[in-house]
Amino acid sequence: MTRSRLPGEGFIVGFNLGDAGLVQRPRGGDSYPPYDIERLPAESGTEHLRITLAVAGFSEEELDVSVEARQLIVRGRQIDREEPSYLFRGIAARQFQRIFALDDGLEVTRASLRNGLLSIDLIRPETAQVVRKINISASL
Of 52, 66, 71, 98, which is the most exposed, with the fewest CB atoms less than 10 Å away? Predict the structure, then answer.
């Protein structure tokens, strides 16, 4: 499988959904936070995808999900808190930004946070075939 990415963009979602190349990761990229992408059962011709990020320790107020120029941008920044005295710290507590490049036609429908998992639902509505009549003008 050939791996590629668009210049200046992050992970590609929605390209060649039938192939194994659903997501193409940039080389040498940061792996935090880990994520899954799943295809949900289609409903009435509409394709459904879900991106789930593991964001343990982040509250709803500390997460931001936005779509900008065909890019889904997920940011996390923890609010300053009084630090406890840790004996061991294995749960990451750092800011992050994860960018997913969206294929044409993919729309983000909702985001929800539950049990430390941020789920972002996307759909690709079935496109209607439009037939347009082109008039031919007579040359003079």
Answer: 66
Q: How far apart are the first and last CA of the chain?
A: 56
Q: Tell me what pLDDT residue 27 has.
A: 45
CATH number of the domain at 113, please. Answer: 2.60.40.790
* Contact (Cβ atoms closer than 8 angstroms) between residue 17 and residue 106: no
Q: What is the pLDDT of residues 61-104, one digit of tens each?
A: 999 999 998 899 999 998 877 777 888 888 777 899 999 999 88
Residue 21 to residues 25, 35, 63: CA-CA distances in angstroms?
10, 16, 28
Q: How far apart are CA 80 and CA 85, in angstroms?
A: 15
Query: What pTM did the predictor assign?
Result: 0.71
Q: Which amino acid belongs to residue 73? A: I
CB atoms closer than 10 angstroms to residue 19: 8
